[in-house]
Write a structure and sequence with these properties.
- There is one protein chain.
- The chain is an alpha+beta fold.
- Among the domains are: about 130 residues, no CATH class; about 160 residues, no CATH class; about 70 residues, no CATH class.
- It is about 35% helix and about 20% strand.
- It contains 21 helices and 18 strands.
- It is globular.
- The two termini are about 45 Å apart.
- This is Heterokaryon incompatibility domain-containing protein.
- InterPro entries: HET (IPR010730), HetReg/Transcr_Mod (IPR052895).
- It comes from Fonsecaea multimorphosa CBS 102226.
Length: about 550
């Protein structure tokens, strides 16, 4: 399209009136006919009746032209399929679809419209999530998803017969649909009042997707097939999205901060063409959580600026350091990114951090100490210099004396056999009490010496009871962790890059301790550190350091 056509098609919007565009599609009984429609400008302050379309960008490179406002507009084959399938055969119908209702060539307009996503999707009568079309296997699975009796029989039984082989093949096709891998879908689904997933002529509701997830989890207890495990991990962020909006409007700001971090962490597997959208793609939810002025979508900002501004804003607004639990500098690919800021675009595997998110909520290493959120303010944020530093309140309580072997991600189906040799090697590193060792490798879920032998047995037999009580928490605790022993002879688990001589700190606003490393900059103050990552140290996790006659004193700690 030339500039003249663009200006005619996308008339300027008035942000003060919260204006958006809607696509009015003409009816057509011929599904293969090219769509014809018009764009109209409306205000979100009006009474509106439209469906919002959630779909995947990219895909096949074929370009087609359709008639919108009597202008030939280029669209992808995926958008063509969407419009042909979702238009009404008998009457005009109004839709909101980002690829046509937003002038994607205007970065300022994109930023303004992104801020309205909460209202665009929440005001829609229905969100139609377009999955694609033309796959017999996927259509069979959708029929089963919509049938309770069929769903109960899916993936059940240990015999690898042709029926089960077809079921797993259909499941693999289903979870391979490109839509599930798009980061923007989380807020689009979360903000919707009603969602329907559409695949060609088939459709199903979010509740049916939740039932599929339940069937997969039940079947997984009988056979730990890799395909089922992969499917559950792919669908987890989607299922979680259903509860995001109600949770966004309830709870304390600290609780909301933890939820926001969990959402971003689970979205690491999802894709986007612009890495800044890992934050901007969640603005609708963040606005519901923290208010309309929490963060702006500035596409003129660098990736480093976007991630740093967001992390600093979340910390200073909530007083929570939960976002630090996702930061490990060795995984950062962004030049100049502060060590306390997670690299959400990192392509490294972060499964271990995801597993431990729920456990971290149990702990309160900083005891009852609290600090005003604004006191946890990153310095240099106005200019975002290369030395953006986070000012914290905390204290150093120990050092890493010795480290053990690093445990990577467990590889199915060998995970049971991998557990025992790792535990045995760590036990040789730490000669203290078995109870303390067990608390460390299970994140405090077990302190019984007899459970150590049960851990070994679980690696060999995998009984259901032991699996549920011991082995699963043990694998969650140890995945992608390095074992260490402190100068006070306490066992711990920390990030991969944990080294002897690193410092251990408790920080106000953090529920867990942190591994810090003295700044290597020659002009750095003595209390300036780099963040290595969060950790577990036995005897610290529940505020034990504050129970003596002389509790530690908090002072300024700077993290660069």
């Amino acid at each position: 399209m030339d500039d003249v056509s663009r200006s005619q098609l996308w008339q300027p919007l008035d942000p003060s009136r919260r204006e958006i565009r809607l696509l009015i599609l003409q009816p057509d009984k011929d599904r293969h006919a090219f769509p014809i429609g018009r764009l109209i400008t409306v205000s979100l302050e009006q009474q509106l009746h439209y469906d919002a379309i959630s779909h995947a960008w990219g895909g096949p490179s074929e370009v087609y032209y359709i008639n919108i406002n009597k202008i030939k507009v280029p669209i992808t084959s995926n958008v063509l399929d969407v419009l042909q399938h979702l238009r009404d055969p008998h009457q005009e119908k109004a839709f909101w679809i980002d690829s046509l209702c937003i002038n994607q060539y205007d970065t300022k307009e994109r930023a303004e419209q992104v801020k309205l996503m909460e209202h665009i999707f929440h005001r829609a009568v229905q969100v139609q999530a377009w999955l694609g079309c033309e796959s017999a296997g996927v259509e069979r699975l959708i029929d089963d998803i919509n049938n309770d009796k069929a769903l109960q029989k899916l993936f059940r039984g240990r015999d690898w017969d042709r029926r089960r082989q077809n079921e797993v093949s259909s499941l693999k096709d289903f979870v391979s649909i490109r839509y599930w891998s798009r980061v923007w879908i989380l807020q689009e689904l979360a903000l919707a009042r009603s969602v329907v997933f559409v695949f060609g002529k088939k459709s199903f509701a979010m509740k049916r997707l939740e039932k599929l997830d339940g069937a997969l989890r039940q079947a997984r207890q009988e056979s730990w097939g890799r395909d089922l495990v992969d499917a559950i991990s792919i669908l987890l962020p989607i299922i979680s999205a259903a509860n995001l909006f109600p949770m966004a409007t309830t709870g304390s700001r600290e609780e909301k901060a933890r939820r926001a971090v969990k959402m971003l962490s689970r979205a690491r597997r999802l894709g986007c063409s612009d890495a800044r959208d890992r934050i901007y793609g969640m603005i609708g939810i963040m606005t519901a959580m923290f208010g309309p002025d929490f963060i702006d979508a500035g596409y003129e900002c660098s990736l480093r600026e976007v991630y740093t501004r967001f992390a600093g804003r979340l910390i200073s607004e909530t007083g929570s350091l939960a976002i630090l639990n996702q930061a490990e500098v060795i995984f950062s690919s962004i030049e100049g990114l502060p060590t306390w800021v997670p690299d959400w675009a990192s392509r490294s595997v972060h499964d271990g951090a995801n597993y431990r998110m729920e456990y971290c909520d149990w702990f309160h290493a900083a005891g009852e100490f609290s600090v005003e959120p604004k006191a946890l303010a990153p310095t240099c944020m106005s200019s975002l210099s290369r030395s953006s530093v986070l000012k914290c309140m905390g204290f150093i309580f120990g050092m890493v004396r010795v480290t053990g072997a690093y445990c990577g991600s467990y590889r199915w189906p060998n995970s049971k056999r991998e557990l025992r040799p790792m535990i045995e090697s760590w036990r040789q590193t730490y000669s203290g009490s078995v109870e303390s060792f067990m608390r460390t490798i299970t994140l405090s879920l077990s302190a019984r010496a007899s459970d150590l032998e049960e851990c070994y047995k679980a690696g060999e037999s995998g009984s259901t009871e032991t699996e549920r009580r011991i082995r699963r928490p043990c694998m969650d605790a140890t995945s992608e962790r390095r074992f260490f022993v402190t100068n006070n002879n306490a066992p711990g688990l920390g990030p991969r890059d944990t080294r002897p001589g690193d410092f251990l700190a408790v920080l106000a606003g953090g529920r867990v301790p942190y591994v810090l490393r003295r700044s290597s900059k020659p002009d750095a103050l003595p209390n300036t550190y780099a963040l290595v990552g969060e950790c577990f140290v036995d005897g610290v996790m529940y505020g034990e350091l504050f129970k003596g006659t002389r509790p530690p004193e908090f002072s300024d700690i700077y993290i660069e």
